[in-house]
Design a protein that fits this description.
The protein is of the alpha/beta class. It has one domain: Vaccinia Virus protein VP39 (Rossmann fold, 3-Layer(aba) Sandwich). Strands 3-2-1-4-5-9-8 form a seven-stranded mixed sheet. Strands 6-7 form a two-stranded antiparallel sheet. α4 links the parallel β2 and β3. α1 packs parallel to α4. The radius of gyration is 17 Å and the shape is globular. It binds S-adenosylmethionine. S-adenosylmethionine (SAM) binds next to α1 and α3. This is SAM-dependent methyltransferase. Keywords: Methyltransferase, Transferase. One of its GO terms (molecular function) is methyltransferase activity.
Length: about 230
């Protein structure tokens, strides 16, 4: 049987809690992506793989109109509680076309740490391009290929599907590791233009809470984040 990539049941509950305060999500990925997003006031944003709604809630608080899509009903439940009616959230499998959205109906699309879970990324990017207006932006973050290589070993150029244990929980997430060339190459082949690439490091607040994690994540890459434009 094909392994599920959406985070169901115990994994969903674990991620919802972990993402709240984790050095990786709360202090590294989210601050970097929100900075790449810039001023979102009045923008229509699609949050692809919205998880427990951390991004959706923050973007809505900054004045955006947000639609979040997510394949796990466990996480959607957490997301609904978090956004408290300030974003529209839909159960949607990212392996399927975006039948819920018209062409050019969003100003921006955000896909945080979900891209590497998707098998049919060609279709996903075609759909993202279709629903973005011309000149709209796309933000994507993913696991850093060097971090995957350090963790899993083998070839840096491997495209194998792996299970990464999460935070001593006994649970693991299932995703495809890929070299930088594949990650960026897919986005450029889909017709997007690269505007910015960052290798996020934790914000200073983490130092007060967890100095060891702060130091570690300032030495060892964890994520990549890119901002692209739909021409
Ligand atoms: C690491 S979490 C990131 C969640 C959120 N973007 C964040 O950064 O807090 C990856 C998310 O992708 C979702 N996901 C993975 N595969 C999916 C699929 N095929 N369809 C819909 N969602 C999927 C998972 O359920 C999970 O919520």
């Amino acid at each position: 049987m094909r392994k599920a990539t959406a985070y169901h049941d115990a994994l969903g509950d674990f991620f919802a809690e972990h993402a709240d305060t984790s050095p990786y999500n709360a202090y590294t990925d989210r601050p970097a992506m929100l900075e790449l997003a810039g001023d979102v006031s009045g923008a229509g944003i699609l949050d692809v793989g919205c998880g427990a709604g951390h991004y959706a809630a923050e973007l809505a608080a900054r004045g955006a109109r947000v639609v979040g899509i997510e394949g796990s009903d466990t996480l959607l439940r957490h997301a609904r509680a978090r956004v408290n009616g300030h974003a529209d959230l839909l159960l949607h499998d990212l392996e399927e076309p975006f039948g819920f959205a018209d062409d050019a109906s969003f100003d921006g699309v955000l896909c945080a740490l979900a891209y590497e879970h998707i098998r049919n990324r060609t279709q996903l990017l075609r759909e993202v391009r279709r629903v973005l207006r011309p000149d709209g932006w796309l933000l994507v973050s993913t696991t850093h290929p060097t971090a995957d290589w350090l963790h899993f070993g083998g070839s840096y150029f491997s495209h194998d599907w792996r299970d990464l244990p999460v935070g001593g929980s006994g649970l693991s997430i299932h995703y495809q590791r890929m070299p930088l060339e594949t990650f960026l190459g897919e986005l450029l082949t889909a017709g997007f233009v690269l505007e910015q690439l960052v290798e996020p490091r934790p914000i200073a607040d983490l130092r007060q809470i967890d100095e060891a994690a702060y130091d570690k994540l300032h030495r060892k890459p964890s994520f990549l984040a890119v901002r692209l434009r739909r021409p």
